[in-house]
Amino acid sequence: MRQPSIRSCKLQVTGLLLTIALLFCTAAIFAQNVDVPVDSALARLPGVKIISKMVTHSPYKLEYQLTIKQPVDHNDTTKGYFYQQVHLIHRGFSKPMVMETEGYQGSSRGNELEKMLHCNDLNVEFRYFNKSKPDSLQWQYLTFEQATADLHHINQVFRSLYHTKWISTGISRGGETALTYRYFYPDDVDATVPYVAPMPNDIEDKRIYAFLDTAGGAAVVAKIRNVQLFLLAHEQEALDRQSLSTRRLHYNTLGSMGAAFEYAVMEYPFSFWQISDIDPKKIPTDSNFSDYYNHFVDVFGGDLSGFSDEESVTPYLPHAYMTYQTGYYKYNIQPFKGYLHYLSGANPTAAFLPASVPRHEYDPEFEIKVNAWIAKKGNNILYIYGGRDTWTACKPEFGAEVNAKRFIVPGANHYAARIRNMPPAMKQQFVAALEQMTGLKADLSAL
Fold first, then answer.
1. CA dihedral defined by 271, 276, 277, 280, rounded to 10 degrees?
2. Which DSSP letter does residue 311 get?
3. Over 60: is that where the pLDDT of 341 sits?
4. What is Dmax (Cα atoms) for the chain?
5. Is the distance from CB of 189 to CB of 182 less than 8 angstroms?
6. 255: alpha, beta or left, given left = phi > 0 and alpha = psi -120 to 50?
């Protein structure tokens, strides 16, 4: 058989490339035509501004960074306004909407539900975090009543475009936000999927102490206590290990770098189970300081910089301030009194606030009401927790008559407790429950 000439091959390749280019241009023109009604529809929403836009062609989706005008006080608009950051992933007006309620700064990454349902997503930054704050921080308006009113306003504004099923979701404090949002506005969404959401029952939730006193069994509890005592006995050596950049940070809120170290040692058991995936068998038991210190750093993912004003205090001021409503946890320093140089008196809180920000007296009634609603009326909620996560100790309880389910991912920490990491049978149970609550079929392969 005669082989085709080089020239004819080149012509065929050129033609193929031109065809591909034409198809790409056609797709781009089509996408632009599709963009126009989306852009104009968003621009018509009251108080909404498009800050930036990104187009993905395969698979097709639009992403917008938006702001929405919010009153500082939803009960009195004369108090002024701020502009809340919202990230929108748009796939179609007829597709479901996932509303991701952040507890901190916003995100543009999307989430598991948005991917599984191939749907739209609204990621909402919490008020007073990052860029979502007024010029003057009037702390008295940083409440869950105001923050959930922000979410309700966003829901009502965007429902004028998206008339389909709505699901709220959030991770950690974002999950707590999603649950509190449902308490105040139970009909805004069809279902809620909170991940690793702590719902404390006190400003010093004793369930944390009970967890830390038993997690891993008596032998592991003893090993963790030994690490704390060893590090406190070698405090100066640990401080000498800090890098120059860490020393240049500020530790005014906690008192000093030495105080920050003692706070970190008190935090160590909580973080060992919450954020690390270290096998308890690898907890050091020898007398080598480097082994203990390196293990300590491995748990936190770094040195004491994470307890500085710059990295631990300032970015999370709104969260620490709001613990008077939400409750939190403290450090039981009683067993370590003979080793501590900076911490003394009553058990200190893990919510760090500088003296310049007022610390309100804890109001137990708020969480009592929210948890009571969850227990008796919190329908269409799918809870996800991690089997080793400390915060799982603060999971809310609900009665058998409530249409809700809890999924505890075996061995998962705070960051690994996700649908993608569930055992196969649990994944199927989850998507079946989601379909029962919303009528929507999830695509697990998208994870």
1. -50
2. I
3. yes
4. 94
5. yes
6. left
| Position 244 confidence tier, pLDDT thresholds 50, 70, 90 | very high
Structure pTM?
0.91
Given a cut of 80, is residue 6 above it in pLDDT? no
Whats the size of the chain, residue-wise?
Answer: 447
Task: Examine the pLDDT at 307 and tell me if it is beyond 90.
Answer: yes
Kindly list the strands in the beta sheet with 81-90, ordered across the sheet, starting from the edge strand earlier in the chain. Answer: 48-57, 60-71, 81-90, 120-124, 97-101, 166-171, 191-195, 381-386, 404-409
What CA dihedral angle connects 213, 214, 215 and 220, to 10 degrees?
A: 80
Concatenate the DSSP letters of all residues of 67-131 into one string. Answer: EEEEESSTT-GGG-EEEEEEEEEES-TTS-EEEEE-SSS---S--HHHHHTT-EEEEEPPTTSTT
**pLDDT value of residue 326:** 95
Distance CA 150, CA 125 (A): 10
Tokens for 77? Answer: 């608009």
**DSSP secondary structure of 195-248:** ES----SSTT-HHHHHHHTTTT-HHHHHHHHHHHHHHHHTHHHHHHTS-HHHHT
Span 46-201+366-446: which CATH code?
3.40.50.1820
Write the pLDDT tens digit of every residue in 142-190.
999 999 999 999 999 999 999 999 999 999 999 999 999 999 999 999 9
Element (H, E) at 61: strand 60-71
Residue 199 CA to residue 398 CA, distance in Å, equals 12
Closest CA to 229 of 332, 306, 340, 305: 340
Helix, strand, coil proportions of the chain in percent (round to 5)? 45, 15, 40
What are the tens digits of pLDDT across the range 90-137?
999 999 999 999 999 999 999 999 999 999 999 999 999 999 999 999
pLDDT digits (tens, 9 = 90+) for 191-203: 999 999 999 999 9
User: What is the rounded CA–CA span in Å between residue 225 and residue 296?
Assistant: 13
Would you call 47 helix, strand, or coil by DSSP? coil
Q: What confidence score (pLDDT) does residue 59 get?
A: 83
Contacts of 38 (CB under 8 A, 6+ apart): 62, 90
- For residue 348, whether the previous peptide bond is cis, meaning omega lies within 30 degrees of 0, is no
Q: What are phi and psi of 407, to 5 degrees?
A: -120, 115
Give residue limits of the domains in the chain: 46-201+366-446, 206-336
The whole-number pLDDT of residue 30 equals 44
Q: According to the model, what pLDDT value does residue 34 have?
A: 57
CA atoms within 13 A of residue 119's CA, in its CB half-sphere: 26
